[in-house]
Write a structure and sequence with these properties.
Organism: Rossellomorea oryzaecorticis
Largest sheet: none
Strand content: under 5%
Mean pLDDT: 79
Keywords: Cell membrane, Membrane, Transmembrane, Transmembrane helix, Zinc
Radius of gyration: 17 Å
Number of helices: 8
Protein name: ZIP family metal transporter
Number of strands: 0
Membrane topology: Multi-pass membrane protein
Family: Belongs to the ZIP transporter (TC 2.A.5) family.
Distance between the termini: 25 Å
Number of domains: 1
Length: 241
């Protein structure tokens, strides 16, 4: 149980590290784009090879399809809402002072972190193998997210202390969400666990398609396609070891 909380917190720890990087350093956008592209590949591979593949045979196809599309649809509705509030750039590291809303980015990131952490908690249930690739993917993808928000929060005149407290709170919430995912679903039917994984896979793939990959290509150019593919094949290799 406590392992679920620990790994949920570790996966989100890069949010805190990204915030520190945004405060202390100037990181070239191209480097950030490459990190984002690699994280996109890992998330895509993990959602496909881990979450969806493990659902196959453990839940019926119609239910898997419904939950996957429901996850994608709910994320899309959420994305439309948070974009109108100024959080459309939460996966980006844009330093344009006329194009930011640090607090909205923070709220959007918090809402992303909760379902991600619940999935991590679920991965510790029953006989399922721990989703190591998924944890690594979330860790990598979170870095530019916090980097972006910290830049925006600095432009909004937030103090360094307040910025770090905000991101530290996301790490705590992520750890608790992972623990709750484990606790509340440990007695649920096995098919329910896999269906929630399919739901998460739909939301994650919708997220990387609409936020991370477009930004990575915009800042990194065509080479990000190869870097993203590298993340996908590494995800496939790791899940088959």
């Amino acid at each position: 149980m406590y392992q679920a909380a620990l790994w949920g917190g570790i996966a989100s720890l890069s949010l805190f590290l990204g915030a520190l990087a945004g405060i202390l350093f100037t990181i070239p956008k191209r480097i950030t784009a490459f990190i984002m592209a690699f994280g996109t590949g890992l998330i895509t591979g993990s959602a496909t090879f881990d979450l969806l593949s493990e659902a196959k045979g453990n839940a019926d196809l119609l239910s898997i399809t419904f939950m996957f599309l429901a996850g994608a649809a709910i994320f899309t509705v959420f994305e439309l809402w948070i974009s109108r509030k100024g959080g459309s750039q939460r996966k980006r590291s844009n330093k344009n002072p006329n194009n930011h809303s640090g607090l909205a980015i923070y709220i959007g990131t918090l809402m992303d972190a909760i379902p991600e952490s619940i999935i991590i908690g679920i991965s510790f249930l029953g006989g399922q193998s721990i989703q190591w690739v998924f944890i690594i993917a979330i860790f990598i993808s979170n870095f530019p997210e916090a980097l972006s928000s910290s830049i925006g929060l600095k432009l909004d005149q937030y103090s360094t202390r307040k910025i770090l407290i905000l991101w530290g709170s996301v790490v705590v919430v992520s750890s608790l969400s992972s623990l709750l995912g484990y606790t509340f679903l440990q007695n649920a039917p096995e098919s329910t666990e896999y269906l929630i994984g399919a739901f998460g896979a739909g939301g994650l793939l919708a997220m990387v398609s609409s936020t991370m990959l477009p930004e990575a290509f915009e800042e990194g150019g065509p080479v990000v396609g190869f870097i993203s593919s590298l993340g996908i094949i590494l995800s496939y290799i790791f899940t088959n070891l």
